[in-house]
């Protein structure tokens, strides 16, 4: 799924990887590989490939570099794994690499395909999953999150280059910021109001904007 999504993103952006073309990089992240776990449980040990081959095809460390190999991408390629923040952190890092001149084009990608989601889940108190199977972001009635499968890839360029190339520009990254909330929260998996508000203020300051300029969260 990730490989084909990268192909589609490049095609949509009219970019063809080539030796004399732009340096294209990739930052990618993925969720838990439940399919692989199921395969391990259901396959006899003697029928499994050796450990190196299994790691090469299923370990998250190889997600970005393997896609870059198949697509002949010669810019920076790395996996970023930070749970729910992975994909947006990828955009943050990819944007920084473009500003530093490490690459001409960056793909930021995230994927989670979980065939077990159709089985539902057992609700447990103090866990992150919703008690009623519904997700209500920013609501007083929110009781947790729910799982989903999906993938996405965005192609990023410096604004001047995108304009010079005549690209269709869907959005502009004015600024981004990154932090961690340490222990200032109820538990390890709980969000921190102080941590989130701090990084939002930092991003707004970098962009020269205020909260009044924000129309969508």
UniProtKB/TrEMBL annotation:
This is Polyketide synthase. The keyword Phosphoprotein applies. InterPro entries: Ketoacyl_synth_C (IPR014031), Ketoacyl_synth_N (IPR014030), PKS_Beta-ketoAc_synthase_dom (IPR020841), PKS_NRPS_Biosynth_Enz (IPR050091), Thiolase-like (IPR016039). It comes from Pseudomonas sp. GZJR-8. Transmembrane segments: none annotated. GO terms for molecular function: fatty acid synthase activity. One of its GO terms (biological process) is DIM/DIP cell wall layer assembly. It holds the Pfam family Ketoacyl-synt_C. The keyword Phosphoprotein applies. PANTHER family: FATTY ACID SYNTHASE, SI:DKEY-61P9.11. It comes from the Bacteria. GO terms for cellular component: cytoplasm; plasma membrane. Residues 1-217 form the Ketosynthase family 3 (KS3) domain.
